[in-house]
Structure formats: C-alpha cells, structure tokens
Amino acid sequence: MQRIANLIVRKDNKVLLLKKPRRGWYVAPGGKIESGESIFTAANREFREETGTIPLNPHLKGIYTMVIKNDQDIVNEWMLFTFVADGLEGTPYEDTVEGVLEWHPIESLHHLPMAEGDRTNLLFAVNEKGMQYGTFTYTEDFELLNETIQISTEGDGINA
Amino acid sequence: MQRIANLIVRKDNKVLLLKKPRRGWYVAPGGKIESGESIFTAANREFREETGTIPLNPHLKGIYTMVIKNDQDIVNEWMLFTFVADGLEGTPYEDTVEGVLEWHPIESLHHLPMAEGDRTNLLFAVNEKGMQYGTFTYTEDFELLNETIQISTEGDGINA
C-alpha cells in the first residue's frame, strides 16, 4: 500500500504550500515513504527535497486512510501521514518540478482550492491539539464522497 | 503492506498483556488493520475483540516500520501503530484463542519475555510524553538486528 508523508510549516501566521500545476490545487510538501523508512524520517526527507529547507520540531498530527472509489469498487487506497512544524531553517525554493511554493495566511486554508480532505487535515494540523485519524473516500475525480474523523489527545495518566 | 494496530491499557500501575502460546512472549492486544479502516478504529476494534473490554481514551504513541531480513534480503515489512489507554470498561477475558490475558506491573515490561522492539515501544507508550517513530530490523527468528528511533512532542505553537 502506498504511504505518503506530508508536512505543513507554520511561521508568522503563514503556512508554506505547494501549488500543483495540473489543477492549481494546494498541498503540503511531501511524498512517498520508502521501504524501511520511518514516517518521521520520510516526512523530513521529503520536505527538504521539495523545499530546500529543514523543518523545525516536526510533529505528527494526522493519519488518514484515503480511498478512491469507482461506484462501489475501491480502485485505490493509500495512507497519508500529516506533520506540522513551527518554522524552518533556510529559504524555500520558489519554482520546483512539483509546482510553485507559496506562503499563505493560515486562514486562507479555509478557501484556497484543494482536496476537501486535505483542507480538513491541514486546518487540524495547524490549529488543534492532539492527533486526528480518519478515512476519506473520493471519486476518481477527487470529489469527496465521505469522511469519518476521530481525534485523541494525550491522557493525564502520562507520567502521572 | 500489512498494518498492525495494538493497544496497551494502563490501570492501577499495571498493564494488560497477552501471553502468546508459541514462545511465551508478551504482546499488547491488537491485530490487522482492515481495508478502508482508520488506525484509531482498528486499534479499538481489535482490543475489544481480543479482550472483551472497551479501552478508555486511547491515544497513539508510536508508529514503527518492522523489517525482517534474511541476510541482506528483506523478506517481510509491515507497520505497527501502538496506542495507550488509561483504563478500560468491562472485565477482560482470561483465556482467548490468541493466548492468555494477564495484568502485570508496569515495571515488569523491563524483564518479561518479548520482542526487544516491543519492549522499547511499550515502555515509551506507558512512560513518556509525545510520539515515537522508528524502524526495527529483525532476523526471521525475531532477533533484533538494528533499531533507529525518533521522538517528537507537540510544539508550543499549537493554539498559540
């Protein structure tokens, strides 16, 4: 099963997003997790490769099961691991082979064009405490058919 | 790729463990994540099925890449998602088809027989704050060849 790690950097009330050329939709920089690689290592590596910068104190915020359906048939399924970081070291590329890197105000995540599941995930990553889990079901044209979401936070019993 | 979710319940300074019949090694109750299922839903479902109880406030504590090597060849690779919960609702089964469920003092995780990677993971889950990531490489006989670990905690920028 394909596994994708992405990472959204938050700095000065802005976030760094990648505008993909095909649809003009925005995503957080990221890419495929390799065999034997931890998801943390993958998220850091992919972010560095796509932006030319190092994210500061990345932390996992969401794990999602993504399902593509054609009518009742599942035609694709993958996992998405979304990290947040507070700032970065270096100056991001502007144009890359993957698309254009742009800083946008955090609140623009509410209206920039993107997959609806990504909007849910990125808003949680930058605004909320804890961890989010869920399943997003899309058509092959990335119309969101269904989403189910769960959230958990670290209990008081830790180090109690 | 196979994906396993397990869950360790901590209650009154004890943890609920499953003693597997083949080697007598201890594990946290868990099992396979199904197609389309979120890892949170899977961890809860598997725990309920294996123990007959409901975990309270489960929270993800670790994500691991598990690699089995025969000499230089990777013969198997899967992902493990480890949750912790503070208490449970109900009375656990004693004997199950999977093994015997037993309560043990938290500190016994240091010496009970188990895979060495599981020891690292479960001790982190019950004793530490934040999220742990890593890759564990084993022989086919579950001798630990190598481990690499990363840890992150939620940044101060959350809700700042």
**Helix count, DSSP H or I runs of 4 or more residues of chain A:** 2
Mean pLDDT across every amino acid position of chain A: 95
Shape of chain A: globular
Q: Percent of residues of chain A in helical segments?
A: 10-25%
Provide the CATH topology of chain A.
Answer: Nucleoside Triphosphate Pyrophosphohydrolase
Instruction: Note the quaternary state here.
Output: homodimer
Computed structural class of chain A: alpha+beta
Name of the CATH class of chain A: Alpha Beta
| Relative strand content of chain A | over 45%
Main β-sheet description of chain A: 10 strands, mixed
Count of DSSP strands of chain A:
12
What series of H and E elements makes up the topology of chain A?
EEEEHEEEEEEHEE
Low-pLDDT residue spans of chain A: none
Overall domain count of chain A: 1
CATH architecture assignment name of chain A: Alpha-Beta Complex
| Alpha-carbon distance between the two ends of chain A | 38 Å
Question: Which pair has the most extensive contact?
Answer: A-B, 44 and 44 residues
Can you describe this structure?
- Chains A, B: InterPro entries: NUDIX_hydrolase-like_dom_sf, NUDIX_hydrolase_CS, NUDIX_hydrolase_dom.
- Chains A, B: One of its GO terms (molecular function) is metal ion binding.
- Chains A, B: One of its GO terms (cellular component) is cytoplasm.
- Chains A, B: Keywords: Hydrolase, Magnesium, Metal-binding.
- Chains A, B: Belongs to the Nudix hydrolase family.
- Chain A has helices spanning 39-51, 116-127; strands at residues 2-11, 14-19, 26-27, 30-32, 54-55, 59-70, 73-86, 88-89, 95-96, 99-105, 131-139, 144-152.
- Chain A is an alpha+beta fold.
- Chain A has one domain: Nucleoside Triphosphate Pyrophosphohydrolase.
- In chain A, the strands form 2 sheets. In chain A, strands 1, 2, 3, 4, 6, 7, 9, 10, 11 and 12 form a 10-stranded mixed beta sheet that branches. In chain A, strands 5-8 form a two-stranded antiparallel sheet.
- In chain A, a hairpin with a 2-residue loop joins strand 9 (95-96) and strand 10.
- Chain A is globular.
- The N and C termini of chain A lie far apart (38 Å).
- The relative contact order of chain A is 0.22.
- The mean pLDDT of chain A is 95.
- Chain A binds chain B through residues 1, 3, 10, 35-41, 57-60, 63-65, 67, 74, 77, 79, 81, 84-86, 127-131, 133-135, 137, 148, 150, 152-159, and chain B through 1, 3, 10, 35-41, 57-60, 63-65, 67, 74, 77, 79, 81, 84-86, 127-131, 133-135, 137, 148, 150, 152-159.
